[in-house]
Amino acid sequence: MPDTTTLTGVPFDRKPFTSLLKRRFFFTEAFEIYREGTNIKKGSKGLYDYGPPGCALQANIVEAWREHFVLEEDMLELDCTMLTPEEVFKTSGHVEKFADWMCKDTVNGDLLRADHLVESVLEARLEGDKRAREAREVEATRLDDSTKQEYDEILAKIDNYDGPELGELINRFDIRNLNGNNPVHPPIPFNLMFKTSTGPDAAVPAYLRPETAQGQFVNFRKLLEYNENQMPFASASIGKAFRNEIAPRSGLLRVREFLLAEIEHFVDPDGGKKHKRFEEVRDVELRLLDRDTQLAGKKDLRSMTIGEAVEQCIVDNETLGYFLARVKLFLQKLGIRLEKLRFRQHLANEMAHYATDCWDAELLTSYGWIECVGCADRSAYDLTVHAKRTGVPLVVCEPRTEPLRVEEWQTMLDKGKLEPLLREDTEAVEEVVAALSQIALEPAATTLAEEGEITLHLSASIPDITLGSELITISNVTRVEHIREYTPNVIEPSFGIGRILYSLLEHVYWHREGDVAREVLSLPPSIAPTKVLLVPLSAQPAFRPILHTLSRKLRALGISNRIDDSSATLGKRYARNDELGTPFGVTVDFESVRDGSVTLRERDSTRQVRASQEEIVDAIVRMVTGTEVWEEVEGRLPAFGVA
Amino acid sequence: MPDTTTLTGVPFDRKPFTSLLKRRFFFTEAFEIYREGTNIKKGSKGLYDYGPPGCALQANIVEAWREHFVLEEDMLELDCTMLTPEEVFKTSGHVEKFADWMCKDTVNGDLLRADHLVESVLEARLEGDKRAREAREVEATRLDDSTKQEYDEILAKIDNYDGPELGELINRFDIRNLNGNNPVHPPIPFNLMFKTSTGPDAAVPAYLRPETAQGQFVNFRKLLEYNENQMPFASASIGKAFRNEIAPRSGLLRVREFLLAEIEHFVDPDGGKKHKRFEEVRDVELRLLDRDTQLAGKKDLRSMTIGEAVEQCIVDNETLGYFLARVKLFLQKLGIRLEKLRFRQHLANEMAHYATDCWDAELLTSYGWIECVGCADRSAYDLTVHAKRTGVPLVVCEPRTEPLRVEEWQTMLDKGKLEPLLREDTEAVEEVVAALSQIALEPAATTLAEEGEITLHLSASIPDITLGSELITISNVTRVEHIREYTPNVIEPSFGIGRILYSLLEHVYWHREGDVAREVLSLPPSIAPTKVLLVPLSAQPAFRPILHTLSRKLRALGISNRIDDSSATLGKRYARNDELGTPFGVTVDFESVRDGSVTLRERDSTRQVRASQEEIVDAIVRMVTGTEVWEEVEGRLPAFGVA
Predict the structure, then answer these.
(1) Domain with CATH 3.30.720 in chain A
(2) Is B196 an interface residue toward A (CB < 8 Å)?
(3) Predicted ipTM > 0.90
(4) Which of residues 375-414 of B touch A (CB under 8 A)?
């Protein structure tokens, strides 16, 4: 487990953290009672359900995403089907290439993901070596230095090996299944899409989409029309996608069904993929791990502005750079800790088959650096293959501001004279002439001008035919193009919402000094599942109407809140809500009945202020919508005794 | 096609309506370019994508639903996986029973849904008869009166026939495939769930959920715990579900992938399923089509308050009644036309296998009355079967206010004396004694008291054993139960969002008087995809900053808006937005540059007012949030010349 620390600098401990998330029903393994009571364990791994706080947190992240990206830039949101006919994924290349490499244990039949097998065995050996050195054991139990270095270098680029290369590593280092130490068969590809069939006759194969992107691409023509033919523009989609992982692991991080939020930004490939709002983000600082650094077996991060990164061609173009910066700003808004964020460039073999460049936003968690957002340049790949397969043009036609003058050679046959002469060969001649390239036409024109005739080769079965200049003319003409036709390129920022949600929870988890049992989730007010806890000091009936009025007022303002009038102590009720990440608590007491004032408690500091209900509601709204922070509220409203 | 009329009383015409929805990209058949360019037509039917306005409309309906139900009643929202292990659906009964009856054409192999086949053939014959009578044709081409009446009665309860009954109807009336007039094979059941498998070894079957409900049921224990053991409570879930329809048809109304919003309200079955907020809805009027009316072959609606319906036992209980009334209020809020809403009770054979009672909210469309919301009483069915299968108790344990005193017979064996006597038979005796019922124990106690011994029959292979009163005692004791344990019943309102969305669009569609080309969608401001269209009077650059300021202001207030500065005429730009259902238009003109005022146009009346930007923005916010209506705004702000 990598060493990560909580907000207070204490080492992060995953066990109590996971226990909190399950206890408070942020999520649970799906079909948990079936795992306990039956033997469905197999194959049901990698499926998780979100309980009420997890579900609300997810909804708030999605809402923030929609605001930050879709609304901010007038993106065209779509909702496309998950069921997808096989033909579509044959075209996109997913049927052939969307696979992981899998090894089978030769003895117990375990099915293992090949790169994870190599990774875990080498890491285990390095770990063993480290312990041996610390314990000053004999040399024989240690790795020699060159092996150690080799392992480190392999691990630094583990994502870059294809199946045969992984097979070689397995042979070379005698890598075996950690469960039982048996050898494994060579890696074979395993397609990650779930297959089913549609309709009653079972013969029509379909897949569950592994990404939302294809639904957006096949709708490109309608999107462009809806956008009144204006370029560039982006579409966006939020929805579930499915990948049949060989061996799901790492909790919410590698699952078989997950929520994706994807943007497809369609851009003219000419003109260097500039972005008109790039200036707004030019000075945003990013921490980058580029391709060259990784290939050198290193992991050093380079801190620089996105402006510098694009200038130095570390990031290929402005549009890609614009989105990297916007991704950082989005993650920051959610409460991601920036020292646990980096942008890593994909290695060549690691990229999906459709990508020409790709940068991942990775978040540091107790499972290591986790890819949470992928920003891929898919070039014109998808639109091109779908257009080719369906015959439907997926292009942009733009009037040229300056008409384009194209000089070219044109041929003309005198059909009236040709036909009586050539009879059934006429058509063959026409075809051959039409197929002559510009390069072939130039010397042909010269020959025709100089010799008055040219000779055409038709096919092996027909003798060559010679045409005189009374039958054919080849002339140099200037054609004027008023319309420019091109296939847009696509920049795709793709967000794994579940991974972001889990990493965020790790980032905001801590416990109060000196008491590991007093755990807190410091989620920002805008993202927290519930914003306000309303508590009566005691079971006194006079408190009830005040609580309900407050609750209705807050709800009308769109502020989610919960009344806790259970018999638990005030401290226990607040502790429960610290665990749920509820940022504010309002207490109603005898004073409230007398003068209408209430206290407002802030989760992280546990400090309180006291003011009228109107002032407190107003302060909460301002903090939830981000127009004020707690320190400002504390500065202007009177403090209230210790919590 | 049933006769339905638009808001202006003109007959509804589906053709221009559908053309509008496709033209404005509310939705499209999924993979449209593949339908044009390849042969994937088969099996890809029944899949639709929502374009930007459809997607926004769907999001607004979902948001209204969440507010009206989830937030209003503190329901516990879950997000559960769609992939579901086979074992779960075996338990719930879906693997065996979630099927439609299907007939195969004996000649061309067409696969037909049996009830739809019978329905369409009988309807076609009735239609033919009607036309023959109108044309005063000879008697031979008409149906005789008793046949006609029989057809009407069958159609009134078409949903009530099972497979063998449909088979009989097909034989009796010589019903054939309308496509080719061939006879069909007898109906066979066809399971509607999509099947796949999870994990790399392909041997672990799973299904795509056909409803979200099971995910909520299997999480019952955690939900109850999260709710701190308080009953009653409801969970809710919004997500996609899948049904492999035999023959998708009717556009968005019968599709293979659709958005469901489902509530599972868990209630104590004792005490008549009262609802504590029933008083709030008691006087809500509903139009009901109950079971008895349908079985009598009739379709008359009975108008009454839900209070009366529950009193008269037409609707079984308060909780079910409460939700029927709340459903009506919700649909009204969306803009559904109440004269096109009815509640129809399911017939016995029509109900899903898990339901004991069910009422559908049906909406009248050009396809007839369409089930859009189902309110089923699932009793304790689901929790009981899952608990039995997994061995995990899914019950509520409540402390009794009054301890319950239970008188019962108890047995006691003197093991110290028994064992030396019976040796290996001891265990068998213990088991038999433990299994004795209360009914068997009473006479046994009498025998033991009177004769001093009783004889036990153990099994066929062991001789009967006689025990004296020194070995066994049977005594009448009073046990006090402090805890009550019960399995909750479930009332389930289940909303087909796509069907509601489509029906709503039919309800709000009309065209301006005398001009079929000037079409309008009168969606309520809170539901409309875009709230405000911002238009400059001309391309004058001075208008631009005003438009952008207005746009930013509205966006910050959560009001979606769009600037249209295209070169089309003002009339054309407004017409386009009438078709998109945009309720308000703001025009910026020369006057705006001079004094800051702008005009506000209302979609349905096309009337306009003029005021300062602040006043106009304020009026828009009030109308979108429902605190003011257009007529009030018109009453207090100065009118502006004709549009």
Answers:
(1) 402-483
(2) yes
(3) no
(4) 386, 389-392, 394
